[in-house]
Design brief:
- The structure is a homodimer.
- By secondary structure, chain A is mostly beta strands.
- The first copy, chain A, has four helices and 21 strands.
- The first copy, chain A, has two domains: 166 residues, Oxidoreductase, molybdopterin-binding domain (Sulfite Oxidase, Chain A, domain 2, Alpha-Beta Complex); 110 residues, Sandwich (Immunoglobulin-like).
- Chain A has a five-stranded mixed beta sheet.
- Chains A and B meet through strand 14 of A and strand 14 of B.
- Chains A, B: InterPro entries: Ig_E-set, MoCF_OxRdtse_dimer, Mopterin_OxRdtase_euk, OxRdtase_Mopterin-bd_dom, OxRdtase_Mopterin-bd_sf.
Amino acid sequence: MPYPKVDVDEWRLSVKGCVEEPLHLTYNDLLRLPQITQSVTLECAGNKRALRDPKTRGEQFLLGAISNAVWTGVPLQTILYLAGIRPEAQEIVFQGMDVGFRTDIPDLLSYSRSLPVTKAIHPDTLLALFMNYEPLPAKHGFPVRLVVPGWYAMGSVKWLRRILVIEHPFDGPYQSRDYVLYTRPDDYAHGVPITEIQVNSSIAYPTDQQTVRRGNQYVYGIAWSGSNNVTEIDISTDGGHIWQPADWIDSEQRYTWRRWSFHWKADLPGEYMIMSRASDESGAVQRQQALWNVKGYVNNSIHQVKVYVE
Amino acid sequence: MPYPKVDVDEWRLSVKGCVEEPLHLTYNDLLRLPQITQSVTLECAGNKRALRDPKTRGEQFLLGAISNAVWTGVPLQTILYLAGIRPEAQEIVFQGMDVGFRTDIPDLLSYSRSLPVTKAIHPDTLLALFMNYEPLPAKHGFPVRLVVPGWYAMGSVKWLRRILVIEHPFDGPYQSRDYVLYTRPDDYAHGVPITEIQVNSSIAYPTDQQTVRRGNQYVYGIAWSGSNNVTEIDISTDGGHIWQPADWIDSEQRYTWRRWSFHWKADLPGEYMIMSRASDESGAVQRQQALWNVKGYVNNSIHQVKVYVE
């Protein structure tokens, strides 16, 4: 499917529902409002699904369904204060311009997700107009996308066209069927909605099944968490028996991944299982096996790669 | 590593060794020689390595290490006739401008591969100057690359700088250690060099672990072989019990993949194992399990994806 194409002169962002003053904002209206800038890592809830064993249903993402960018835009709270949320408001629904069919619903559907009011009015939740100091590229949601720092990226709705304030929980399929942790097979009655990014790390080099030269090696990777800063990263080169701290390349920055490196004295030829394990300031630490769930979301298992030293 | 960057005014292609008349050709020299154009699929010998079970060493390619393009350039035989190969010539070595380190050799090395004289003077073997009717992009080997139709892509040396005619077999590491089928663990004495692309096919849609809607579905993919045309493509939707022919989207064209589609009446919800199996005009047919080898090359196992119908 092509990305939604938008004529900014005709585009309007409507803010409706349980508000004092419905709004119809132009792109220029948004550009004229005060902007903030922050670095935010966006991770797909299905990142690393392909590493699950046994396999789980859904797109088989490896390590690449994550990225980091600097976002500039209008705090969502500014818009909500302009519209005036009524006290009965419970959730805010964000509707994108991207439409498609699902297997479980007959009609054409646009992508919609909600936020509780508390997260929506958090000062870091953003209507982003710029990505890395340039207008949003078409594929990243031009003209305006939501950026919900600390949450998995399903919440950061792209190509926004409508904000609806409602008095009840939103039950759209991308809220109630997808992006929910169902931890028992065939039991869709009890699920936990996905919100905060869980502490995680990936080894970028060496890659799984790679052969490296004997001697001094450096292992590289990234570590991240949701709204908690990631504070520790430990590496094992012997399959999890001995753990040693790696060195941070980036300092702590909220909502933002941190690159790390680890000096590995790979003096003896052989097979090595290299593992990375991150912890965050809340005390959360990656486990050997992430929680199993039907759709394989939130895979924050300790990452491991098998490497051969020659 | 960045791609080699070439100033075409200074670049020369030297043709030396066991020849009557060594050549130093400029880019303009090559442009002025008669050109031919042909469509050629290039597949990495490690394509689909990640689908091997058990895993094998090397980069974990999935389905994407294959592409097709229309190549225009000077038949290699033209150059070899101009230089005059001597009767003692046994192989032709092609040296690229891409350099790097290996784990098993201390020195910096440029990528080099050889062809036997018979394959080198085959009228379809090409010094390509254009890809899809435009000058080669930097990453595809500008200014000139070899295109060896029907062979795995390790033979199609990019960023050419030197052609050396030799009187003995070439034993560079990319010829004698890599791109060789070692079929017994730890036995590097008996190997079969990789040459011709083996008959193969991939399912592009649906993807593994995808959920699709009940009713009429189309399965899409590609099938290919080396110097033999691919002639038949059969699909199973029940894990290999019943096979039915798919429909060709593309007609037969030598050295070129063919897209196919298969009308699948997915009327009943459930789990399906969809498989594709191609045959070529030599009678070769994909097997359930491709030949195991240490480095996991030439994975032409029948491709299978698990699909859920809802």
